[in-house]
């Protein structure tokens, strides 16, 4: 998805001379096309994420539209005070891009694991939060973000192993959309675990349970309408995310499901462990298995929840 984002940013920067691109010593083998095409608007600030965000705020106050790009854990946690006080407080046109969200930098250790970005970013006033799932969503989310005023955070991850076709409708901020139909339950996912949601649905189908799968690329503002609709019509609603089960997609959906009066027995969120770091060393798939985010395990848990 990173390359899809870069290709779209080349278009955006060509069409809009007010766009500046800042990076905190990151993006080699990815950002060179932007640096080459727009050397005067591409700034590498070095390993100084808070300075990057404060610089972006200053540029935005002068009428610029600014991208701040780094590894997701560093793009959010290190400069969080500057994001809150410099960008969000003034509602500035600064877009924070976090690449490698979740366990995408698994082998680099806990410092590079991003398990709390949705939670901490969605609580900020004025901040919108995006998490595209695959190439088309990444390109469309970038277009949408660049055409909107104000702060954004967008998490980029590894493209899923399943090839998803372009939907037959337009991408829109604050909207989710169906990937797979199913009459019994609904599975809502965000970001690059969409393939995990689809695999779970495929397992359940063989076992006699039809699961509708919804991709939710916008976490804030979230699509309350589609959540209410499915919570009212389906036997159960489940969420899957590569994020802590505290404060992310699952918590956001739970807040809405609660308003519908859906019994808590018919809702569950699947994500990363609530109160521990994974200190194991391995690739992303290995850490996801350690966290229990496997299609077979999720399907079994859903079956148990439904009493099937």
From TrEMBL:
Stretches assigned to coiled coil: none
Domain of life: Bacteria
UniProt-listed SMART domains: Transket_pyr
InterPro entries listed in its UniProt record: PDH/Transketolase, THDP-binding, Transketo_C/PFOR_II, Transketolase-like_Pyr-bd, Transketolase_C
Domain annotation Transketolase-like pyrimidine-binding: ranges: 1-162
Transmembrane segments: none
Protein name (database record): Transketolase-like pyrimidine-binding domain-containing protein
Organism: Candidatus Kaiserbacteria bacterium RIFCSPHIGHO2_01_FULL_53_29
